[in-house]
Specification:
The structure is a single chain. This protein is an alpha/beta fold. Helices cover 52% and strands 10% of the residues. The chain contains 37 helices and 16 strands. The strands form 3 sheets. Strands 7, 8, 9, 10, 11, 12, 13, 14, 15 and 16 form a 10-stranded mixed β-sheet that branches. Strands 2-1-3-4 form a 4-stranded parallel β-sheet, sandwiched between helices.
Length: 835
C-alpha cells in the first residue's frame, strides 16, 4: 500500500477525493474504504438504513440537502434521466448557491488535508461543484466506480420499485455525465467487482493513478477494511454467465459499459470517449420518444409498485411480529422484576420476624402492649428527647418544615409513593421513610419523585434553581409551575393549560392535575406526545401517566404517537420530501388565466364526475399521484408525482413552489382541491369571482350537510351570501396571491397538511390583516370519510413516522394559531387591496 506521491502533510491545499458514481454502484463501500485509509469524512452523515445501506451511506446530509435543492431549482431530481441545460448550470454556479456551498465546505472541512466526498448527484452537478471546490482551494481528484448496470437496475427495482427501463436510463445519464465532466481533471475508474475481490491491489492502483499517499496504513487498517468489505454485504450480484447478461442489455447500456471498461485501463482513451459522446447525443435526441415509451410503461410500473407495496407490507408485518416478540420479552422481564419485589417483601417479613424473635423484643413486649393501647402518648414521650436535641441544635423548625412539605407532596400526588418504591425497592429493605429520604438526599442522588418530574433535566434547564441548591420539585411546587417552568421534556405546562382550561380556571398546578387525571382520561402532556396512540402501540406495557417516561427512557427519537423533540419531526418531514418529487409533463398555456385550480389526481379521484372539456375562466393544474389518468385530462399544466414515496397535496404544492415558483405567481387566486371533493364545474369560476369581489384572502365553498369529516361551521346555511370565519379548511382552500406568498413556507412544515390551515389563517390575519369566508351560495361535497385507523393514506404516513395530530399541534403551537374554526364579524375596509 505505498506510493511515490507527495504526502498530504506537505501539501498546502487540501485534497478533495470525489466519488462519482450512479446510485447503487458501490459508492458507499468505496467511500468508506478511502475513509479507513485516512481521508476525512464530513461531520454530519446520513444515518444507515436497515433495508438499504445497513453499514452506512458515508454521505454528507448537508450536501445531500443542498444537491436536492440545486436539482429542484434546475427543474430536476435525483431520479430524473432528462438532460440539464448547461446554461442553467452556469446560472446556478454564479448565484447564491455558490456562496452557501463554499460556506458548507469550510464548516465541514476547516482543517482537513484530505477529505473524501460522495454524493451520486455530483455526477450531474460537477460543473457547479468543480468551480466551488476550486474557489475553496481544494485539489480535486475524482474516482468513478463502475458496477455492472444489471446489478444497479436490480438494486433500484428492489429499493425504489423502478422498472429496468427507467433504471437503465438513469444509469446512462449519471455515468455519461460523470465521465464527460471529469475530463481534464485528475481521475481514475475503479471496478466495484475488483474492489470486493482484491481491494489492496485496486487501492494501490488508485493511489498511483491519483498521485496519492494514503494517510493511514498497516495491519489494523487492513483488518478494518477486510471486516467491512465482506461478501455477505453485497446484494443483487449477477449470477449468470456475463456474456449472456451482456447480450440481454439494451444497446446503449451495453456499449456504454464496454467503453467504461476501456477507460478503466486507459482513463483518457479518445476512441472510448467519442463513443460515449455519441451515445449521449443519441439519448438527448430521443428524449421525446423515450418520454412516450416511459408514459406507456407507467401502468406496468404502477403494477410493479403495488407488488413492491405488498412486499413492503409483508416485511412490515414481519417487523411488527418481531416487535411483538420483543414486547413479550419485556413483559416477561417486568414479571420477573415483580417476582423479585415479592421476594424482597418476603425478606422483609423474615427480618421482621427475626427482630421480633430476639430476647430484647421479648423483654420489651409489655411496653409494646402499652404502645398498642396508647400509641399517641408513647410517641409523644419518646419524641421528648429528640425534640430537646433538635431545639438545642436549632433543627426543629427545619424538621417540621420538611414534614409539612412531605405531607403536602404526598397529598398532591407530586410525590408518587407507590411509583417511587417500585423504582427504589432498596429503601424499603433499609427501613427508610421514602419521602423524607427523598426530600433530604434522594433528589441529589438522581432519584425522581414521580414519572413526570425529571430532577436532572429541571435543574439543567433552570441554572438559577441549580445555583440555589434547592430541591427541584419543591421549587416547582412553590413557584416554578406559576413561572411557566416545565418539569419534564415531555410535559409542556403552557400547552397543557391551554388544552385544559379548567386548570387555569382553578389555579391548579398543571402537573398535579395531569397526575391525578391521566390514568383515567388519557390526557396528553405535550404537543408532540399522543398518549392513546403510544399506548396502543406498546400493548399494555405501561400506564397512561407513565407513558411519556416509558418513551423517554426507551432512548428512541420517535415511536407511534411520540417525537422526542421538534427537530425529530422536522427531520422526518425532510426525509419524506426527499423521497418524493414532481416531474413536469407538459405546460400548454399560451397566456395564463387570472385564476387556477390545483388538483391532486389518481385512481380514486372523483373529478371525472364534474370535470368537462368546456372552456373555463381558470387554468387547471393537475398533479398525478399515479399513472391512471396521465394525458387524459383537459388541463393546461400536468405533473406526475415520482419517487420512492407517494406525495401528498402539500408536498406537491411545496415542490411546485420550489421548482416552478413562477407558475403559481401568475394567478390572482389558486384553489387547492383534494381529489375526493365533488363540486359543480360552473361554480368554480363563480367562487373565484366572489372571492375577488369580496376582497377575500382565503375562501372555500360551503359543504353539503352529509359531508363526512368536516368542521360544522362550514356546513351550508342555504345558498346565499358569505360568512366571515377565522380561517378555511385545507381540503379546498382558495388562496390569494399575497396570502400564498406569505404562507408558502408552511407547505415545507407539514406532510399530512394537518395544521397548515390554522397556521395559514393566523398569518393572513396578523401579517396581512386579511379576510376569510365560507361562500354559502356554492356547495361542495366531501365524498369520503376520514379513516385515521385503516385508511391507506394515514397508514402510509404512520409507516414513515408522520403523525398528523402531532403535525397539527406543532404548527398550532409554533404560530399560536386558533385550535379550530368559528364565525367572526366581517371587517370593514376603507380601500380595496390587490390580490
Amino acid at each position: 500500500m505505498n506510493s511515490l506521491a507527495t504526502p498530504f502533510a506537505q501539501s498546502v491545499s487540501p485534497v478533495a477525493i470525489l466519488v462519482l458514481g450512479m446510485h447503487r454502484s458501490g459508492t458507499s463501500a468505496l467511500t468508506r474504504v478511502i475513509n479507513l485509509l485516512g481521508a476525512d469524512l464530513p461531520p454530519r452523515l446520513m444515518p444507515p438504513a436497515t433495508d438499504n445501506n445497513a453499514l452506512g451511506f458515508w454521505e454528507s446530509i448537508d450536501a445531500y440537502r443542498m444537491n436536492d435543492e440545486l436539482l429542484t431549482s434546475l427543474g430536476s431530481h435525483w431520479d430524473d434521466w432528462h438532460p440539464i441545460a448547461p446554461e442553467r448550470l452556469d446560472v446556478v454556479a454564479k448565484g447564491p448557491f455558490k456562496d452557501r456551498a463554499i460556506k458548507m465546505l469550510r464548516q465541514n472541512f476547516p482543517r482537513s488535508q484530505c477529505f473524501v466526498w460522495k454524493d451520486p448527484r455530483n455526477c450531474r452537478l460537477l460543473p457547479f461543484w468543480s468551480r466551488v471546490l476550486d474557489e475553496f482551494g481544494a485539489k480535486v481528484k475524482c474516482v468513478l466506480p463502475i458496477r455492472h448496470p444489471r446489478e444497479v437496475a436490480e438494486s433500484l427495482r428492489v429499493r425504489d420499485g423502478f422498472s429496468y427501463s427507467k433504471s437503465y436510463l438513469l444509469w446512462l445519464r449519471y455515468v455519461l455525465e460523470g465521465e464527460s465532466a471529469t475530463r481534464g481533471l485528475t481521475r481514475a475508474f475503479l471496478s466495484y467487482d475488483g474492489l470486493l475481490r482484491d481491494w489492496r491491489s485496486e487501492m494501490d492502483q488508485l493511489a498511483d493513478a491519483l498521485s496519492l499517499v494514503w494517510p493511514r496504513s498497516g495491519a489494523a487498517v487492513e483488518t478494518d477494511i477486510d471486516h467491512f468489505l465482506r461478501e455477505e454485504h453485497r446484494h443483487h450480484a449477477v449470477a449468470v454467465n456475463t456474456q449472456e447478461i451482456m447480450q440481454q442489455l439494451p444497446d446503449w447500456v451495453r456499449r456504454t459499459y464496454t467503453a467504461l471498461g476501456e477507460l478503466e485501463h486507459d482513463r483518457d482513451r479518445r476512441a472510448a470517449q467519442q463513443r460515449l459522446d455519441a451515445i449521449r447525443r443519441e439519448i438527448d435526441r430521443g428524449t421525446k420518444v423515450l418520454d412516450q415509451v416511459m408514459a406507456w410503461e407507467g401502468p406496468a410500473s404502477a403494477l410493479e409498485d403495488k407488488r413492491q407495496r405488498i412486499k413492503h407490507l409483508e416485511e412490515e408485518v414481519s417487523a411488527r411480529n418481531a416487535d411483538l416478540a420483543a414486547l413479550q420479552a419485556e413483559i416477561a422481564a417486568k414479571q420477573a422484576g415483580y417476582e423479585r419485589l415479592a421476594q424482597r417483601r418476603n425478606e422483609l417479613l423474615y427480618r421482621l420476624n427475626a427482630i421480633q424473635s430476639k430476647a430484647a423484643w421479648q423483654l420489651t413486649r409489655p411496653l409494646h402492649a402499652v404502645e398498642d393501647k396508647y400509641p399517641s402518648s408513647v410517641r409523644r414521650l419518646a419524641a421528648i428527647p429528640k425534640l430537646l436535641w433538635w431545639s438545642l441544635g436549632f433543627r426543629l423548625a427545619k424538621r417540621l418544615r420538611i414534614r409539612r412539605i412531605a405531607n403536602a407532596l404526598l397529598a398532591s400526588g407530586l410525590f408518587d409513593l407507590p411509583w417511587y418504591l417500585r423504582r427504589n425497592p432498596e429503601l424499603v429493605l433499609a427501613g427508610i421513610n421514602p419521602v423524607l429520604h427523598w426530600l433530604v438526599a434522594g433528589w441529589q442522588e438522581g432519584r425522581d419523585p414521580n414519572p413526570m418530574f425529571d430532577c436532572g433535566w429541571y435543574l439543567s434547564r433552570n441554572p438559577d434553581v441549580a445555583a440555589m441548591g434547592v430541591n427541584p420539585l419543591v421549587h416547582f411546587w412553590e413557584q416554578g409551575a406559576r413561572e411557566g417552568r416545565d418539569p419534564h421534556p415531555l410535559f409542556d405546562c403552557a400547552w397543557y393549560r391551554a388544552q385544559n382550561p379548567e386548570v387555569a380556571n382553578e389555579g391548579a398546578n398543571p402537573l398535579e392535575h395531569y397526575l391525578r387525571t391521566a390514568a383515567t382520561e388519557n390526557r396528553d402532556p405535550h404537543p408532540l406526545f399522543q398518549t392513546s396512540l403510544y399506548l396502543a402501540a406498546q400493548g399494555g406495557t405501561c400506564s397512561p401517566r407513565e407513558a411519556p417516561r416509558h418513551f423517554a427512557e426507551s432512548g428512541k427519537a420517535v415511536a407511534p404517537g411520540a417525537y422526542r423533540n421538534a427537530e425529530v419531526l422536522v427531520s422526518l418531514q425532510e426525509s419524506y420530501r426527499a423521497q418524493t418529487h414532481m416531474r413536469l409533463l407538459r405546460d400548454e398555456r399560451l397566456t395564463a388565466n387570472r385564476y387556477a385550480v390545483f388538483l391532486q389526481c389518481g385512481a380514486g379521484s372523483v373529478h371525472r364526475h364534474w370535470l368537462s372539456e368546456r372552456p373555463k375562466t381558470w387554468d387547471l393544474i393537475v398533479n398525478h399521484y399515479d399513472a391512471t389518468h396521465i394525458g387524459q385530462l383537459p388541463c393546461q399544466i400536468e405533473f406526475q408525482q415520482q419517487g420512492r414515496l407517494p406525495g401528498t397535496k402539500f408536498t406537491a404544492v411545496h415542490g411546485l413552489l420550489q421548482g416552478w415558483p413562477d407558475i403559481l405567481k401568475a394567478y390572482a387566486y389558486v384553489l387547492l382541491l383534494d381529489d375526493d371533493l365533488h363540486i359543480q364545474e360552473s361554480e368554480i369560476g363563480e367562487l373565484f369571482a366572489i372571492a375577488e369581489e369580496k376582497d377575500l384572502d382565503l375562501a372555500q365553498p360551503s359543504l353539503a350537510s352529509d359531508s363526512p369529516g368536516c368542521h360544522p361551521v362550514f356546513f351550508t346555511r342555504g345558498r346565499q351570501g358569505v360568512r366571515h370565519v377565522n380561517g378555511v379548511e385545507i381540503m379546498m382552500p382558495l388562496i390569494s396571491r399575497r396570502a400564498l406568498e406569505a404562507g408558502a413556507h408552511l407547505f415545507n412544515e407539514t406532510v399530512s397538511g394537518w395544521g397548515l390551515d390554522i397556521a395559514l389563517s393566523k398569518i393572513v390575519k396578523e401579517q396581512l390583516d386579511g379576510k376569510a369566508a365560507v361562500v354559502d351560495q356554492i356547495v361542495a361535497r366531501h365524498t369520503k370519510p376520514i379513516d385515521l385507523e385503516g385508511g391507506a393514506f394515514y397508514e402510509m404516513l404512520r409507516q414513515q413516522n408522520i403523525f398528523p395530530l402531532l403535525e397539527y399541534r406543532h404548527l398550532q403551537q409554533t404560530y399560536a394559531a386558533d385550535a379550530g374554526f368559528h364565525e367572526v364579524s366581517g371587517p370593514k375596509r376603507l380601500s380595496k387591496k390587490g390580490p
